[in-house]
């Protein structure tokens, strides 16, 4: 897991052993799970009339730090809820669950 600067939201370092445990599943979707719960802790200021640039800087750092640009700009597409497995049966899509 990555440590995040509480002021800027910037990712400071990652834990290589955590990365290894995840194997090839190190995806943006895994980052989403991490960012959802502490988001209010990462964004320390509310948007006001006089602080847009500082607020924007914080938001951009969180988005970049967790690799969420694709979701913000529409590059990443929402995966289908259900997929057909190798036997032709409709099953829940694990990529959708992660999304």
UniProtKB/TrEMBL annotation:
The organism's superkingdom is given as: Eukaryota
Q: Where is the composition biased (Basic and acidic residues)?
A: 12-22
Region Disordered, residue ranges: 1-29
Protein name stated in the entry? Retrotransposon Copia-like N-terminal domain-containing protein
* Naturally occurring in which organism (per UniProt): Vitis vinifera
